[in-house]
Structure formats: structure tokens, C-alpha cells
From TrEMBL:
Main location group: membrane
Keyword Ubl conjugation annotated: no
MF terms (GO), sorted A to Z: NADH dehydrogenase (ubiquinone) activity
Membrane-protein topology: Multi-pass membrane protein
Short name of one Pfam family: Oxidored_q4
UniProt keyword Membrane, yes or no: yes
Alphabetically ordered keywords of this record: Electron transport, Membrane, Mitochondrion, NAD, Respiratory chain, Translocase, Transmembrane, Transmembrane helix, Transport, Ubiquinone
Organism: Empoasca vitis
Family note: Belongs to the complex I subunit 3 family.
Name this polypeptide is given: NADH-ubiquinone oxidoreductase chain 3
Domain of life from the UniProt record: Eukaryota
Function according to Swiss-Prot or TrEMBL: Core subunit of the mitochondrial membrane respiratory chain NADH dehydrogenase (Complex I) which catalyzes electron transfer from NADH through the respiratory chain, using ubiquinone as an electron acceptor. Essential for the catalytic activity of complex I.
């Protein structure tokens, strides 16, 4: 029991020494006001809350989510390729990819992928 207590005290001491050395060596300033303030999409969080912003930020976020979900759906489709159900797998994959391509083409025609106009 006594050796277990000494073991825990040594571990605590080592952790304390390492934490103190990290604090001493690091170049990070604790009083940096820019790093301690929250980042809200490039806007000042203390400014007027009803300030209008470009809808383009919202569109880019939605496009990102669509393609993120696409990857989440396509990867398991590739991993579950089964030769017995090849026709069903191929049909569903092609329909899904076709719908995504049509959506991408629609976004491209409407200029949603252009950052500046």
C-alpha cells in the first residue's frame, strides 16, 4: 500500500514538472485578445447582431455538406460490393452518382461555385 502511494506521488510530480516546463518554454501569450475572442465567420461578435451578410457563405456551406454526405454514402457502397448483387449495386450507384452530377451541373449553371461575380 505504501509503495502504491509513492508511485502515485511520483507520477503526480512528473506530470507537474512537465506541465511547468511546457508553460515555461511555450511562446504563447496568455493576454492575446484576438485569440481569446470567439470567431464568428469573420464578423465581430460584439457588432450589431442584425448585420446583413452575403448568402454566398450559406450556399458554400450547403454545397460542402452535400459533397460531405456524398462521400459518406459512396464509401460504404464501394466497400459492400458483392458479385451476387452486382446489377442492383451498379444500378443504385449509377442513379446516385447521376443525381449528384445533375445537382453539380445545376449549381455550376447558376454560378453557385463562383466565389466572386
Amino acid at each position: 500500500m505504501n509503495s502504491l502511494f509513492i508511485f502515485f506521488v511520483l507520477i503526480f510530480l512528473i506530470l507537474f514538472i512537465i506541465s511547468f516546463l511546457i508553460l515555461l518554454i511555450s511562446k504563447k501569450s496568455l493576454m492575446d485578445s484576438q485569440k481569446s475572442s470567439p470567431f464568428e465567420c469573420g464578423f465581430n461578435p460584439m457588432a450589431d447582431k442584425r448585420m446583413p451578410f452575403s448568402i454566398h457563405f450559406f450556399l458554400i456551406a450547403v454545397i460542402f455538406l452535400v459533397f460531405d454526405i456524398e462521400i459518406i454514402i459512396i464509401l460504404p457502397m464501394i466497400l459492400t460490393l458483392n458479385t451476387t448483387l452486382l446489377f442492383f449495386w451498379l444500378t443504385s450507384s449509377l442513379i446516385f452518382i447521376f443525381i449528384l452530377c445533375v445537382g453539380l451541373y445545376y449549381e455550376w449553371l447558376n454560378g453557385m461555385l463562383n466565389w466572386t461575380k
